[in-house]
Design brief:
About 30% of the residues lie in helices and about 20% in strands. With about 500 residues, the chain is α/β, with parallel strands linked by helices. The strands form 7 sheets. The chain has a 6-stranded mixed sheet with strand order 19-18-8-6-3-20, with helices on one face. Strands 2-1-25-24-23 form a 5-stranded antiparallel sheet, sandwiched between helices.
Length: about 500
């Protein structure tokens, strides 16, 4: 942290810690906040809020130093730390390599796709290459190396990260979902699968479900989900792990609900990638005799997770070529617009690797905490880091710490790119349906991140003055609600009203 950055952080901290008590703030936003605390919506709940004007004037405040469960507002912390640690231009890499030797156009050995943590590999979103385009680029590398035939296997190599993909504090039911799938060394399609679901003919009948993409023929999938009575909702969860190729769908899907494509976790992304690349090569005329394989936790090659590995994976690989992910700034934009846990965990782990040489979860906690301390100074004490995505309920963030983070990012070299990572109400992603009745020009002045878990609703970000794209000129705010017994919809409506009032407080540029 250079001298100027230290001075800025100190000034920000002084401005925040010098903020008047709630009773001394009398803005319309503060009055409304006080009145909300007397309503049934917030009865018995814990609410933290801080909103500061561009000059540090307090517009609303409540429990500013209390650490609360932030849910996906934790992604603001993660992306900010990633910009500072890794840099906006950082790219993940993937290598195509081989064991054995190449003779007369034939690879007499195995072809390895070696992952280094790229979460965008065939991810299916707009910033990444499609699977076919990516495979075509890899096949071009083979052609340049003179490989026309492979007498060996296609190996998905995820050894870059061999620890648990999921955090120990994530809820059991979340681990089978796409948002709880977990990051790894080699990924494919964000390590998820699409399952089209429709209700059965009557309550109690089996739910109609099938695997759409990607195909995983080694999995033993069982459907135990049933059709619930009309009006009872959707409580489907897939239960699975990487301990065995077994998954089971449980829960109910109400009679009369519209068909839906559920996204569940794929615990064998390395094998899935190898399987689809193998199919691509053979279909394009490049013969592969060994089929798709992956490397298990013991370093052994496997073609079927239900069978033990026999051959040791090679440690002596020759690299043919390397492909790279989009820049971190683009990944951060997708991450915050879509509230993508998978991308967030990828950045979190790479911070650990960059700062202290380890991508293990406990190391990443230490690494990100160090980065935050260098950025925020004493305000970093208001943040408890447990994961990168906010899926863990062991994370904690105070409104003071969040607002300090936002102000530090607003004054930093990546201010514009960080601002661009945050969506506006009505834009694609988690804010699509918010503030539908507000004018478009007003909605575009709001850049914020949402966060939702059971009994948690949070929103943090900026409100820009008219005609400005400079976050340093914005109102900076954080609102976190915990232990709310009311519906998320009613809590969210109240929070949106507070944000709309802050919009009215915004000074002209």
């Amino acid at each position: 942290m250079n001298r100027i950055s230290k001075i800025i952080a100190a000034l920000l901290l002084t401005a925040i810690t010098a903020a008047p008590a709630a009773g001394k703030v009398n803005t319309k936003t503060q009055q409304t906040l006080r009145s909300y605390m007397k309503t049934q919506t917030f009865d018995g709940s814990l609410v933290g809020m801080l909103a500061l004007g561009p000059k540090g004037d307090t517009l609303a405040v409540m429990n500013p130093s209390t650490r609360l469960v932030p849910a996906s507002n934790m992604k603001i912390i993660t992306t900010g730390a990633a910009f500072r640690s890794l840099g906006a231009d950082y790219r993940f890499k993937t290598e195509v390599a081989y064991s054995g030797k190449i003779e007369d156009g034939t690879l007499k050995g195995d072809l390895y796709v070696v992952g280094y943590g790229d979460p965008t590999t065939a991810s299916g979103d707009s910033i990444a290459l499609s699977a076919n385009a990516l495979f075509q680029s890899w096949k071009s590398l083979l052609s340049k190396a003179g490989i026309k035939r492979i007498e060996g296997a296609i190996v998905g190599d995820g050894r870059f990260y061999s620890a648990m993909r999921e955090h120990l504090t994530w809820e059991y039911a979340d681990i089978g979902t796409a948002y709880g799938t977990g990051w790894g060394g080699l990924s494919f399609y964000r390590n998820k699968q699409d399952f089209p679901v429709t209700a059965g003919a009557a309550a109690g009948a089996p739910v109609n479900v099938k695997i759409k993409y990607p195909d995983t023929p080694w999995m033993n999938f069982t459907n135990r989900a049933v059709t619930g009575p009309a009006g009872t909702g959707n409580s489907l969860y897939l239960y699975t792990s990487d301990l065995a190729p077994v998954s089971e769908l449980r829960g109910t899907f109400a009679l009369g609900r519209k068909p839906k494509t559920e996204e569940y976790s794929n615990k064998y992304p390395e094998l899935t990638l190898a399987y689809y690349f193998y199919k691509y090569l053979t279909k394009s005329g490049l013969a592969v005799t060994g089929g798709p394989h992956y490397i298990d936790a013991d370093g052994l090659l496997r073609s079927d997770p239900s069978q033990p590995g026999i051959l040791k994976a090679s440690d002596d690989l020759k690299t043919i070529g390397t492909t790279f992910s989009p820049k971190l700034a683009l990944i951060a934009r997708e991450l915050n617009h879509r509230s993508d846990n998978f991308y967030a965990e990828a950045l979190f782990h790479m911070i650990g690797l960059k700062e202290i040489g380890s991508a293990q979860y406990d190391s990443c906690v230490v690494a990100e905490s160090r980065v935050l301390k260098s950025m925020l100074g004493k305000a970093a004490k208001g943040i408890i880091v447990e994961d990168g995505s906010g899926l863990s309920r062991h994370n904690g963030v105070s409104p003071e710490a969040m607002v300090t983070m936002l102000k530090v990012m607003a004054s930093g070299p990546d201010a514009g790119q960080f601002l661009a990572s945050l969506p506006s109400p009505g834009s694609p992603g988690t804010l699509r349906n918010l503030m539908a009745n507000r004018p478009q020009a007003e909605k575009e002045r709001i850049r914020m991140k949402s966060g939702t878990l059971d009994q948690v609703v949070s929103y943090s970000g900026y409100i820009l003055p008219e005609g400005s794209e400079d976050p340093a000129e914005a109102i900076t705010f954080c609102i976190i609600t915990n232990a709310t017994s009311a519906s998320s919809q009613s809590v969210r409506s109240a929070v949106m009203r507070l944000i709309a009032l802050l919009l009215e407080e915004t000074p002209a540029a």
